[in-house]
Amino acid sequence: MAKPCILTIDDEVEFIEMIKSYFEPRGYVVEASARGVNGIEIARDKKPDVILIDLKMPGVDGDEALALIKKVQPKARIIFITAYDDGGKTKARLLKMGAYAYFDKPIASLKELEETILKAHSQK
Q1: Residue 85 in this model has a pLDDT that exceeds 80
Q2: Residues 80, 102: contact at Cβ < 8 Å?
Q3: What is the total count of domains within the chain?
Q4: How many CB atoms sit inside 10 A of residue 1's CB?
C-alpha cells in the first residue's frame, strides 16, 4: 500500500517543519498550511488521505476547519494535534464531530503519530 498523503494545518511554522522533516524522508508526501482557510483549499484540491489540524489558529480554527473539510474531502481522516487542554471535553467533542484521533502538543512520539496515520489510512 502506498504511503498516505498528509496535510498539516498549523499556525506554528516550527511544527510544520518538524512534521515535514520526519515524514518526507520516510516517503510521505506532506502538504502544509499555516492558515485554516488555505488548508481547506489544499484539502479540496490535493485530496490528502490524512489531515493533521491544530485546534487554536487565527481566522478559521480547528473546529471550523473540521466541519468544512468534511464537506470538501469527506474521506480524509482528521487527526487533531493541539496544546489546548480542557480536561478532555474538547477531545470528546472533536471525536464525536468526526475526528479520527487527538494528540497533545508537544508530540511525545512521532513514531506513535506515524502509526496512527498508517492505521487511519488503512481504514479508509
Answers
A1: no
A2: yes
A3: 1
A4: 6
Is there a domain that residue 72 lies in? yes
> Closest by alpha carbon to 1, among 98, 94, 116, 119?
119
Task: Specify the pTM.
Answer: 0.94
Mean pLDDT of 105-112: 94
Residue 79 has φ and ψ, to the nearest 5°, of -120, 125
Instruction: List 103's β-bridge partners, or say none.
Output: 81
Between CA 12 and CA 7 the distance in angstroms is 14
- Please check whether residue 1 lies inside any domain of the structure: no
Domain CATH for 70: 3.40.50.2300
Query: Three cell numbers at 121?
Result: 489510512
